[in-house]
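Box 3.1 A note on notation
Throughout this textbook, protein chains are presented in two layers. The first layer is the amino acid sequence; the second is a token string describing backbone geometry. Keep the layers aligned when reading.
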Amino acid sequence: MSSRLLIAGVVAAVTVTAAAFVVTQDRSTTIKRITDASPDAPGVAWVTDASASGIDGAVFADPRTGSEYPWGAGSIQIDSTVMTLAVAPDGDGPNSDAVMLGIDADTGEVRWTAPAPGLATCASLPLDGQLVCTETPYDEDPGIVTFDVDSGNSHQYDTEAGIVAATVANDHLYTADGDIEGSDVRIHRGTLDDHDADWTRPLYVSAGWEDQYADRLQVGTKTGHFDLGGGFATFDAETGAEIWATDTLDDCMTASHRTVGNLAIGVEHDCASPYAPTATTAFSTDGRVVATTPITAESYASIDDPTDASVPVVLGDAAFDRVSGTELWRDESLVYTQPATEWSDESQRSSLIAVIGDIGILQRDDSRAGIDLRTGDERWTMDEPWSIFGHEGSIVLAAMQDNLIALDIRSGHQLWSAPFDNITPGSQPTTFVDGEGGSYLLQSESKLTRLVPLP
């Protein structure tokens, strides 16, 4: 398979194992003030368009979700290099072309491009200076593909079995292979040259091939998990030994999400009726019940980033200590009832839409509120609705009508605003990639944009 890269007017066909093209550009790094923005708003340092990939009609895609069937824009920043995919959409089928781009985080210059078709997922952390990706397991001779962060040089490592998921952690490569529908899955730890050099261990996992699985293998310093098909599957990161695994039907519980403190949040249900939830429960790493509540409100927090395990965990309408499970406070406004519609039954929903540090953000009709998660006290309210875009420390970026705004999450004070159309005309950012020191990297389907403080 080949990709066509337009470099200085020359079209060259290359394969996935070929070296990358190194691209040099003359770019202005002058910071441009955003028209009609508030005085304290940052300026635009640079904008890189998806067309810089050399692919006609290209759109950006997140390396974490691969190049075959990506789900949206996204990037991985490793040191001073921003790595993102550009793909050529082909209707409902797999993308017809794809390249990986290495972009200078300071200038927006495209340092290199490399062909990247058929990728299932890429790890967020590098290994030996390489971005590590896997090919889709149903491709012919699937394996591991790497991209050198500095040069873009690509290399393919063959594996004996089709890998279904991979990640990098603790300076090791972790992979999963096997039959997820047949609950016959193995976890490996090793190197790029030998993916199971350290060990291979079985792990109970059950899911359908149509489920999301390629990017679900996650590993921390002590434990890892591969949660699929509504079940939890936890293993020891050092030895690979299975610690705890669940089955949706056998255990009458559906996995919801993981959070700080190695807590697994699940929704229990009546064993005779899987669609009749009875409780929301926080489990420890080994499956011990830490806290539970009969409130089963559905939660859709866009950000779950508590400071540490000292911040209480919210289940339903109550907050609990993440270690002891002691109930600390309760607030009925954390849960509301969503009326039945033509397409759905009446349901309970959580008004908690984000956890940032020790502040929780609540959505109440068309207003927003910030609460102290340690006490339950309300710190601020805002009458205007907005949706969270991302955050850097206690500064939250949000979309409010046609503007990008910045808020102090502790006070609710609006720090600045800037019209989206004047940041990147005709292409509103959809993804917050990174933020540090008042500098923000934003991405849309067609543009990657760096905002920095004005001089």
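Residues 234 and 244 are 5 Å apart (CA to CA). The first strand starts at residue 3 and ends at 7.
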